[in-house]
Structure formats: structure tokens, C-alpha cells
Amino acid sequence: MVTLTIDGKEVTVPQGTTILEAARSVDIRIPTLCYHDRLNPIGSCRMCVVEIEGYTHPMAACTTPVDDGIEVVTSSERLTRIRQDSLKLILVNHPLDCPVCDKGGECLLQDLTFEFGIDQLEYQAAKVERDSQYASPLIRYWPDRCIMCLRCVTACQEIKGIGAISIAGDGYGAQVVTVDADKCQSCGECLQVCPTGALTEDLSRYKGRTWLIERVPTTCTYCGCGCQLELNVQNDRIIAVTTKDGVGINKGSLCVKGRFGYEFVNSDERLTKPLIKRDGKFEEASWDEALDLVAEKFSAIKGEYGPGAIGGLTSARCTNEENYLFQKFMRAAIGTNNVDHCARL
Amino acid sequence: MADGKILTINMGPHHPATHGVLRLVLELDGETIVKVTPHIGHLHRGIEKLAENMNYQQVIPLTDRFDYTAASLNNLGYCTAVEKLLGIEVPKRAQYIRVIMSELARIMGHHLWIGSHALDIGAMTVVFYAFRDREMIMNMVEEVSGYRLTPSYMRVGGLARDITPEFIKCLREFIKWFPTAVAGYNTLLTDNIIWRKRTMDIGVISAEEAVNYGLTGPSLRGSGVPYDLRKVKPYSSYDDFDFKVPVGAKGDVYDRYLVRMEEFIQSLNIIEQALENLPEGPVNVDNPLIFNPQIDDVQKDISALIRRFKIQCQGPVIPEGEIYHAVEGSKGELGFYLVGDGSESPYRMKVRSPCFILVSALEKLMLGHMIADAIAIIGSIDIVLGEIDR
Ligand code: SF4
Ligand code: SF4
Ligand code: SF4
Ligand code: FES
User: Fold this and answer.
1) H helices then E strands: how many in chain A?
2) Which residue has its alpha carbon closest to ligand 3 atom 4?
3) Between chains, do B288 and A118 touch, taking CB under 8 Å as contact?
4) Domain-embedded: residue B65
5) How far apart are the first and last CA of chain B?
6) Cα–Cα dist B331/B153, whole Å
7) How far, in Å, CA of A27 to CA of A9, rounded?
8) Mutate which of B302, B311, B318 to disrupt the A interface (most A C-beta within 10 Å)?
9) Reported pTM
10) Which of B9, B64, B350, B368 could pair with B337 in a Cys bridge, judged by C-beta atoms 3.0 to 4.6 Å apart?
């Protein structure tokens, strides 16, 4: 165990803890931008600088481990200036995109810029138009908005263990590139961790604003993992799926189905009324008609061939309750044990 | 009633002389009032609760709807309260313009009062003159804010925009004209024998009782207590101006009338001083956390764009803390108690409505008087239900 002081508060943490983690354990907030709870510290943004008694240079709190007896100061005029300068450098070649950027309103870069009261950039850089291809057509990459924090690259490597993307180029020309498009699973992990609007979900582009949507927490219905996700609903339509970091079994990750497979919900092609085939053609019918027909057919088959002639297949995409009711119906109403489930296949 | 002598009648809420949707249950012994029970709440819109879900700037239009006869005063009370919570002060020019707008609002409020008060008691002519002049102010308010009754012209941190040359021109004309107009109102009422008979010695409240009831504004000053927040606890540069606080002697309907009549002139005085000494300069604080950057900057500088985006979409963030701040409204002490929780919406906003307290003194004022005096008394405390019910 190591004991140090942060802003005059004594903190005791295990050896190897970073200053940032130590500060958070006692509710001291150090602003961060590239740091992400699920990733190893990246140390690319310099927002988390702190002063340590006896050191001339400020240190990045997210990468510096604690040491016995050090005295850390997390906010001072000098630190604010350094943070402001780091932000200004990031903003220099940032496009004027907030009004059309999907992230606008929950963008960490916006939050920090606002918090640190940056209202004028003393320097401007020449704009370079850049076009970019991303690993997956479901994800759009906006190189101009990218702040080179490396969260996406790290997440692809550390959370997924894939490494489909990397950084190429240097200076203002640097951008995220695909190193192996075949490896990309379109899981959207990079999208999830990106603090800015540099990676956006392409299906929901321009559809909603964070403060107008309602985020409804629910469980993914695609498979038995039961990932927790949030449906982003605007005007009764799902316009995107997001997750909360650290929530549920998936802790913020999703697979391609969970994250992008939501358009069917509001699809015009979905059946909204039962159809009955008459003379080789499907015709719309009422629920009463349809259920009567099914019941009649079931009874006829059961009467003629016995309940063993009927079997039921249910789905992993139904809830436990629905599956329970289904098997109950098969056993009690029909009288057969022929019940099965796609997840067994 | 059991003995058959007491008659209970219901007055309002749809009664033109209750100044809004006030309902009074009056118990009468013959024509004499023996009990008064006010019922309020017919205009309750839950404004204090609504404010908890809005950002601090969005609350301003809600405040217009308290005492809508003098909306700018509510804007002023609210904005200065939030600014106090933030620890900022708006530029001098903004303070002076706020004073001008507030005093115009006070005059507008008094116009509505004199018009309807006289009308209630049977003097019909006054309302036409009052509204003629009120219209002049409405036009000016429209000129600067775009709205006539509910200007929402002030902002936390300053004003929506600077005043225009046209406004100044109209204001100069108004300043020149208005003393004549007030003299006209006086001719119609002050020495009018019917008016005096209907108002003198009616609804008397002594200074001590008025203080105990918590009355403020002209209704308190009518009883001789010179309590005016503009003097007692000056805000928005009111200490720069030279003006008198008129008081009454007896505390009857007539005294309250005289106080307001003199306030017309005093408000005009303040407006004139503010206009003549109007400082140059910006009308908004220069604070990146509160106020929108210039639109030119927004179009070329990402940090200004982000600032505008955040301020417009999310609203300024107000630090944790609580504050009570009051201004002299046209009806009395209009106070705002605000609790900030470090977010962009107030955790709690409680309004000390002068009218709510005035209405509680109605029974005291009315007991023993004739039913016809009830109307004169309601008019004399100048209540507005938008503020009582909120
Ligand atoms: S990434 Fe953030 S700062 Fe950049 S354009 Fe989008 S919302 Fe604005
Ligand atoms: S795409 Fe997003 S996460 Fe990746 S480096 Fe750029 S800003 Fe960071
Ligand atoms: S997100 Fe993918 S892994 Fe998670 S429950 Fe849905 S289908 Fe299964
Ligand atoms: S958060 Fe520490 S360097 Fe980015």
C-alpha cells in the first residue's frame, strides 16, 4: 500500500495504481479526454496533467503510478493553462461541424472546451480536405473531427483483440486507417469509445439529437447472451442503439446485430395483420379469424393423428416468459412433449 | 347559515372585478361583510416546477407570466437572482436599460391598475386614457423585444439585444408627454367627490398591521411605511438615481391610490435620468460560460461554435448554491429563491409573490365594510392572479 496526498487529502491505494485512479477513489475529478475506463491508459491528450511536489514538469495522471509520500495538486492556474492549450491545439484544425455532427450535445471535446471557457483560438491552421474509407460500411469515419486520442484503435485491440484499425500518417495528416478490413466484425466497439463525432453510426446519421431522443434501456433480443442496450427513440422510431459503459454482462460492448440490426423494428415490410392463404393467395384477416383457423386445424390434426403429430419450435429471440408460455401451451393445451428451440441447433 | 341571517355568496372566479380568476366566498350580514374566504389556484400552471426542467435562460419567458401586467420586472428579478448566484454583474449599460424597462413595466402595471380600479368603482373614462398611454409603452417594448406584453427581453448576463434609436426617440416623446397624461388622470379622480367617498376610510390597515401581514409595495407604503427595495437594498444601479418613495398616512384605499399616482411620476423620473446618463458599452457580460459569442466568430472559430452550441442547446451551468434575491415589483417585494445544483436547470425555484401575501390580507381589509366596498378594496391592493397562482 502506498499513501499519498491529492489536493491535501490523504489517500492510501495499492502499489501500481495510477494517480488518476487514486484521485477518483476519493471523488477528486481530474479532467480526462483520452482515458477510458475499459482501456489501458493511452496518454495522448494531456488533459489529465497534475503537478507533483518536487517535479518541475506536470505529469499525466492517467499514466503516472502513485509513489509513497508524493503530494499531488490537480488544479492550479498553470494546469488550467496547459489544459486550455492542449484543447486549443486539438481544436485548431477541427471543422465547424457541431451543428451537423451526430455527437453534438454529448461530445467530450465540446464539454471540455466549454468547461475550460475557451472562446477564441489565437491560431488557425490551413484546412486539408480529407476523404476516408473505413473498415466497415456501417461506421463512418470523419477524419477532420478526429482528435487522435487512439481510444478506437486501443479498444479494437484490447477489448476485441482484433486490431483491424490503426493510425497512419503524421502531423495534421494523421488519421485512423483500416489495416485489415477482413478482420473487422463491424461490432462498433470503436464507435462506442470515440469521445467525439469522428466515428458515427452510419445508419442513424443526421436522424436525431441527443437531447431530443429518449434512451430506453432494454435487452438485446438477437441471442441468448442478453446484452444490455439502449434504444434511442425519437418520435416513436428507433434511430440508433447505444450502450452504457460498464452496464450489464456486455459492459458496453455489442456485436454487429445488437448495435446495427434495429431497422427491422420500424420496417414498412413488417406484417402488422395476420394473413390467411385463400385460393393460393394471402389475404389480410382479423386476429379472431386467424386464431380460429389455427385452433380449428390443430384440433383436427390432434383428433385425426393424436397430439404426437404436432411439434413446436420456439426461438431464442423470445423472452423466457414467452418461451415458458409456449412450452406450457404445447404440453397442456396440445398435449405433446415435442417442444424445441433454435438455440439447441 | 343556521340562524338564517347570514348570506353566503360566491364572487368569482369569473368576475370582472376580481382582477383575474380569484374566487371569494363572502358571508354577509345584510350588506356587511362578516367573513371572506379567498380561493386561489385557478390559474396554477406549475411554473416553479416547470422551471426545474428547463435551463436557466429558458425560464425567463415563464417569469413573464407571473405578473404579466409588468413582465419586465419579473425578468429583472429572476435574472438578477441567477446572476447573484453566479457571482456576475452585468455591464452598466445593461443595468441602466434594465432600469428603464422595469420602470416602464411599473408604469404599465399601474396603468392597468388605475384603469380597472376606476372602472370597477364606476368611473369608466379613466381606462381609455390609461390604455392610450399604455399603448405607447407597449409599442416601445415591442420595438426592443418583439413582444408587447411578455417581452422576455432580459437575459441571464445581460439583455437580448441593445435598444434601438427608434426606441430612444419614442421614449423621449413619452417622457415629454407623460406628466400631462398623469395630470389628466388626477383631474379625473383625485378630487372627484364620488371617488373620494368610495375610497377614503375604506379598507384601512395600520402600518403595524400591514407589516405584520407581510404586505409590501404600494399597499404597504399606503400605510406610511417607506419600504422600497430600490432604496433599501439597491440592485441594478438603482442607487445612481434620485427619486422619492411616496407614502400614505392612513392606509385606506385612497392612500394606496395616491401612492401609485405619485409612483407614475417617480418612475418617469428614474427613466429620464437613466436615459440621459445611459453609459456606452456592451449590454452583455463577457463570460464564455454564460453568454453567446458573436455570430461572426461562430462562423469561423470552432471554440466559439462549441460555446454557442452548448449555451443554446444545454444552457449555462450554474454552480451549486442557494440565493434569495428580491426586487421591487409593481405590486411589492418580488423575491426569487433559487437552489442551483451545478447543472443547467434550477434544482428549486420558489417565488415570493407579493400578490399572494396581499390576498391573504383581504379579509382583514374587508371585514365590516359593505359588499360594494369589496370591489374597491380588491382594486386597491392591485393583485394579479398570474402571480398568485403561478
Ligand atoms: S466531434 Fe464534437 S466538437 Fe467536433 S464537430 Fe462533432 S460535436 Fe462538434
Ligand atoms: S476516431 Fe475517435 S476514438 Fe479514434 S482516434 Fe479519432 S477521436 Fe479518437
Ligand atoms: S448484441 Fe450480439 S452478442 Fe449481444 S445479445 Fe445481441 S446478438 Fe447477442
Ligand atoms: S487522459 Fe491522461 S493523457 Fe489523456
Assistant:
1) 8, 16
2) A227
3) yes
4) yes
5) 34
6) 20
7) 11
8) B302
9) 0.74
10) B350
Smallest Cβ–Cβ distance between B302 and the set A96, A117, A209 belongs to A96
Chain position carrying cell 407581510: B214
Residue B23 lies in a domain: yes
Rounded to whole angstroms, the Cα distance separating A34 from A20 reads 12
Is A135 near ligand 2, meaning CB less than 6 Å away? no
For A171, counting Cβ atoms within 10 Å of its Cβ (0-12 exposed, 13-18 middle, 19+ buried), the class is: exposed
**Residue B252 falls inside a structural domain:** yes
In a domain, B300, yes or no: yes
Where does chain A show beta strands of DSSP type E? Answer: 2-6, 9-13, 49-52, 59-60, 71-73, 139-141, 165-168, 175-178, 199-201, 214-219, 228-234, 237-242, 275-278, 281-284, 312-314, 339-341
| Residue A345: predicted pLDDT | 46
**Domain residue spans in chain A?**
2-75, 306-345
ipTM of the complex: 0.79
Exposure pattern of A280-289 as b/e (b: 16+ CB <10 Å)?
eeeeebeeee
What is d(CA B216, CA B222) in angstroms, rounded to the nearest whole number?
Answer: 10
The burial class, CB within 10 Å (0-12 / 13-18 / 19+), for A300 is exposed
In this predicted structure, what is the pLDDT of residue B3?
58
Residue with cell 467525439: A196
> Could you tell me which CATH class the domain A2-75 is placed in?
alpha beta
Cell representation of residue B18:
376580481
- In this predicted structure, what is the pLDDT of residue B260? 92
Supply the range of the domain harboring residue B88: 6-389
CATH of the domain at B171: 1.10.645.10
Torsion sign, CA atoms A218, A222, A224, A225: negative
The CB of A49 under 6 Å from ligand 2? The reply is no
Number of domains in chain B: 1
